[in-house]
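RETRY 2/3 - previous attempt timed out on the joint model. Re-submitting the same 474-residue input unchanged.
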Amino acid sequence: MTNSQYFSLVDTIARMSLKAEAQRYYLGYVWWILEPLLWVGVFYVVFYKLLGTRTPDFLMFLAVGKLMFIWFSKTVNYASNSLMSHAGLIGRMDLPKSLFPLAVILECCYRQVAVFFLLSVLLIYQHYLPTMLWLWLLPLMLVQALIIIVCGCVASMLVAFKRDFGLLINLGMVFMMFVSGIFWDIRDITNTEAADALLTWNPVAFLLHSYRQVLLWQEVPDGMHLLNLGAVAVIGVVIVLRFMQRYSAHLARLVVSA
Amino acid sequence: MSFGMPAASGDSHQVLDNLDLKINQGERVGLVGRNGAGKSTLLRIIAGIYPPMAGTVWRHPEKTIALLSLGLGFQGDLSGRDNAFLAAMLQGMTKKEARSHLEAIGEFTELGDYYDQPVKTYSSGMRSRLGFATALLLETDILLIDEILAVGDNAFRKKARQALAQKLDADKTVVLVHHAEQAIREVCTRALWLESGRVRMDGAVEEVLASYNKAD
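RETRY 2/3 succeeded.
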């Protein structure tokens, strides 16, 4: 299979899957935007109305954090099942196994375009107007996409290895939600060492913080750290894709016999 | 070669047991045996979908191979046409090539207006007709066929066998798994009887089928 065939196949599977999902629900494509919006609404009610958080402009703070986090958590969750849900196909055809998680990841990227559009509308409506700083979004999103590819592919292999990992991955996403500063501000941590450690070692927390710097606070994100993160992510992508290629037949056996 | 499947208990369940087998170019081999004898696993190993746990498989490096089997590949929420498009692309066609086959597939399956309806609304016969038509797209040197001739009603089965026969010229190597012995008689020149992962008998079609039926 040539590269162009491979990518065209990833794209076709992704689009078909979007189409299938839209046909499954009465509201179809509307859910792309509605579901993330409802998430933000639920969090807003709980943390602002009930718990009375004092983070300034909490609604937009939450919207940026949650909407960009959903991209990560949903994709990794979906991708984790991607090999198992194609067991029939994998048992019949010797296809590159990375095809399945990558198709899911691309599918979620298409969805995220709509979500990001929604976020932009919200921001502009709340008078956070686009500036040159918004250009930072490109490298930020690129690095996030690379991290998603690594996590999604690894998750799909873990679930193929033992189904039990599916439960752990779900739990892991909830854990990430709590430690990535979605409904609380990392700058509020009084122990600066702890705050720095969180931004250094939790790439999701770093990315969400950087999105807020760019979109809400008119600050320049830490470019050096982003560059390092990007380099590690690129290496990770290469390793994980090579691994999937090398152990393609073993993965097939795991998936078919599960 | 041998092949085991991990069982839920953590043990391994032996599917193929020290199997030693040679299939020459142009041979058409019919595989018979009870459910669980290892027929589908053997096809998958020959197709290179997964390796044997022990032993090796050698296949002519320049010969292309396809494993044809039905079902499981369809997305119920998509139309037959979309599924056919996806199946064609999965078999290595470009978007353009895949599109050019869609009308022919639709005609062959006799689905009519249903071709543009979601596959989840199909009867099992309609599904298998679509499965057959999409499986038979490829031109390969070696064809491994897993039960795909057992589709639809008698008229469609006849049509399916004719379509397959057209694909088979003297150079093609075929391994056919089929419950209906008539199909094996029509297509194959050699038969293999698998039992508990071993070859119980290997020889001319009539002889093997006669012994197999006697043992049943």
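Chain A touches chain B at residues 1, 5, 8-9, 12-13, 16-17, 19-21, 23-24, 87-95, 249-250, 252-253, 256-257 (CB under 8 Å). Closing ticket.
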